[in-house]
Specification:
With about 325 residues, the chain is of the alpha/beta class. About 35% of the residues lie in helices and about 25% in strands. Helix 2 packs antiparallel against helix 10 and helix 3 runs parallel beside helix 5. It is globular and about 60 Å long. The N terminus is likely disordered. It binds N,N-dimethyl-L-histidine. N,N-dimethyl-L-histidine binds next to helix 10 and strand 11. It holds the Pfam family Methyltransf_33.
Amino acid sequence: MTGSATTSTTLSPFARDVLSGLSQSNPQLNSKWFYDERGNVLFQQIMQCPEYYLTDAEAEIYRNSASELLEEIQGATFDMIELGAGDGSKTQLLIERFLAAGARFAYRPIDLNAAALSEVREIIGLRWPALEFQAIQGDYFEALDRLGRSSGSRRRLVLFPGANIGNFSPGEATAILQRIRGFLAPGDLLLTGFDLKKDPAVILAAYNDPAGHTAAFNLNLLHRINRELGGNFQPDNWRHWETYDPASGAARSYLLPTKKQEVTITALEQTFTFRAWQAISVEISQKYSLREIEGMADASGYECVRHLQDRRGYFSDSLWRVPSR
Ligand code: AVI
C-alpha cells in the first residue's frame, strides 16, 4: 500500500473500516460490509444454491424442533427475540408450530435491514394478526439495549440463527455470546445456529458454487467501495478464492488480484498498490464440533441444554440456558 496521509475524523464507519483494513500489511475487509442492497440480493441467491446446505439444514431443524423448545420453556409466557432476522422465513416455521401447540409468546425480530423488517411485519400481520409483534431496527446490541435487561418475569428465548456467529473468530464469538448473556436472566434461553465441521469438500463447495453467486457476492464489496467511496477497483481483475482448514474449522474467503493493481479511493484520498496475487481477506465462516460448542457455552456463562441437528448432521442449533447461580 502507498498513499498520502488522510485524517479519519470525518469519514463514515464504512470508509474508516476500509481505510484501516487496506492499510494493513495483510489487507482485509470486514464481511459485515457485504450487505448493501445488491449484497442482500446476492446473498438470497446464495441461500438458494443447492451447494449452500446451511439454510435448508437450519429450516429442517426449525421445522422439527418446536416441541423440544417448548418443553424447555415449560409453559411460561415468553418473548422470542431474533438477532438478525433477515426475511424471517425460517422463524415462521417455528411460529406456526408454537401457535399450533398453544404457546403464549411475543415475536421481536431485530435486524439492520429496515426493508427486510417491514416485509416480516407485513407477513406476520397477514398470517397471525393477533400475535404480539415488535420489529426493532438496529444492530444487535443497540436493539437489545432498547429492550432492556430481562426482568425474569417473562422468559426470553433469543434466536441467533443462520450461522451468523461463524462470521466472527471464536474469541469474538465468545465475547458476543457473553454480552448477550448480560441481557438475559436465569432460566432464559439462547438458540444459536452453528455450522458443523464436516467433509471439507462439502464446505468448500458451499462457498464456491459453480453458478458464481458467492464470487459475485464477495466481489460486490469492491463494487460497493467504487460506488460509495469513489474507488476505481477493476473487479474483473480480482478472483474469489476459498480455503478451509479442517483443523481450526475456519473457512476463509479472499479476493486475489490476478495482476498488480493500483487503486485510488477518492473518499480516503489514498492510492493502494496490490501486488499480483496479494490476498485481501474478506470473510471467516467458522465451523465447530459439538464439543467446541459446549466449551463455548461454558466460556460464555451458559449451560448447554441440547443440540438440535438436521438429519445429515451438518448443522446444529444449540440451545443454551442461563444457569441460576
Ligand atoms: C451470513 N453468513 C453466515 C454466511 C456464511 O455462510 O458465512 C455468509 C456467506 N458468505 C458466503 N456465503 C455465505
